[in-house]
Each structure stands twice: as C-alpha cells, then as structure tokens.
Amino acid sequence: MKTGLVLEGGAMRGMYTAGVLDVMMENNITVDGTIGVSAGATFGCNFKSKQIGRTIRYNLKYSKDPRYVGIRSLIKTGDLYGADFCYRQLPEKLDVFDIKTYQENPMEFYAVATDIETGKPVYHKCPNGDRVDVEWYRASASMPLVSNIVEIDGQKMLDGGIADPIPIHEFQKMGYDRNVIILTQHDGYRKKKSSALPLIKLKMGKKYPNLVHDMEIRHEMYNKTLDDIREMEKKKQVYVIRPNNPIKIKRTETDPEKLKALYETGRKEGLQHIENIKKFLEM
C-alpha cells in the first residue's frame, strides 16, 4: 500500500494549502507520493524539498512586485505571473529552491498539466526539481487567457485544473491507495460554468476546440469528482482537509495581509487534523 497526497489548485487560495503543508512538515508527516495541480504544484513542490515557510515567505515579499504578478507583466510578457521572475529568478537566486533535498527525498512528485491540443490531462513525474521540472510546475499553473502556452517536448500545455482539477482517480490508478486530499474550497461548494468561457471560445476555440470542450464541462467534472471524494471519505478511503469556511480572497490576490491571514488559517485548521492524518496514514 502506498500513501499519497493530492493537492488541488486555486491560485492564491493555495496559501491555505501552504499553511497545512507547513504544519504537516513540522510534525514529520510524509507520504510516498504527492500530486499537485496548478498552485498545488508550484507550492506543493516545497513539500518534497522540505522547505517549511518558503511559499508564504516569497509570496509576502514579492506579492506587490510588478515582476512577480500584475497587468504590467501581462502586457509586457503575456504572463500575468512573470515567467522569468517566478520560475527563474525566484527559485535560483532570490529564495533558492533546495534541489539537493528535493532529489534526496524518496517521495515521488507529480505535476498535472492540460494538453490543449488533445484536451487530455498530462501527469508528469518531476524527479529532479531542476529547470525542466520547474517548467512543468509552470505549465501546471498557467491559467488560460493570462498566460503564455507552455511547450515542452512538443506538447502545448496550460493549467492542469482545466482537465483534472483534483486528480484523485489517476493517483489511485498509479497505486496510491491511501490518500490525503487538501482542497481549497469549503464543504458544500459547487463549481459553476466558467464566466471566461465566451472569451476562451473567441480567442482559442478555432485552434484548440478540445480545450474549449474541457472548459465547457469542467464544472460538471469537478462537481462529480467532489461527489466521488465524498463517497470515498465515508468509506475512509481518503482523508480530506478543506477550509472550514469559504475562502474570500481573489484568485490573483496581492494583498500580503490577506495572503498571510489565509496561510495562518491553513496552519490553524491543519493543526486540528494532524493526529487524524497520522492515524489515517498508519492504518
């Protein structure tokens, strides 16, 4: 039996996840494998590199920096979150990503992206934490309309949350049969059809019809996955951590006080789950 950790995305709602992951690390909780989508990949990789506090640290320091995020970056580079700054300068110079620890940690780490030509999810194992893997984190978190398409080995990719926002079923197929799932939406949440769909159809529909199809059914697939998770939870096949209350920050929130408050909420609520997580993983 292999233990796993499944991390939903949600852009800056991921500050909640960061808080939960930090208290898990502080309490020496680990798993055999982790799979992250979007912010679940870009923030979750710090779980494998064992860098407690790194996610909140650099977000607080650079959330107001126009090189990190903002309309200026979008106009200048095509990426709302500046690719060079976020995926080169930050991990290599400004808040160094611990590649050595990442590689030495036997935990497997997967990032999920969406192949925009086929519309299928891509589950990529990221073993090294190097520039190649960082490109996969970037692909996983590249939101449509505000990000450039990321091309790796001929595959054109965007946000993994388009095709598989909570990849519990795929992780189970990989052999991870005892999974902790960290969600970034409260209990009872139901996704609605994307308000961005008309613009996505206009800008990308002719060239990438499978991507548009994904967006058209995304809310249905997401809600069906939530229903499946609820049934697995009842059968004690998964252990779910979700916010106690709706998260009210914007997906692209830049206010450091709001980011810090959500991180602290993740820490506080995560601590309430620690003993139950330990018991679940040891069953």
Automatic annotation (TrEMBL):
A Pfam family matched in the record: DUF6363
Motif (GXSXG) on chain: 36-40
Entry keyword set: Hydrolase, Lipid degradation, Lipid metabolism
Domain PNPLA: 5-172
Stored PROSITE patterns: PNPLA
Annotated motif DGA/G, positions: 159-161
Residues annotated as the enzyme's active site: S38 (nucleophile), D159 (proton acceptor)
Keyword Protein biosynthesis: no
Gene3D superfamilies: Cytosolic phospholipase A2 catalytic domain
UniProt-listed PANTHER family: NEUROPATHY TARGET ESTERASE/SWISS CHEESE D.MELANOGASTER, PHOSPHOESTERASE
Stated name of the protein: Patatin family protein
Organism of provenance: Eubacterium segne
Organism taxonomic ancestry: Bacteria, Bacillati, Bacillota, Clostridia, Eubacteriales
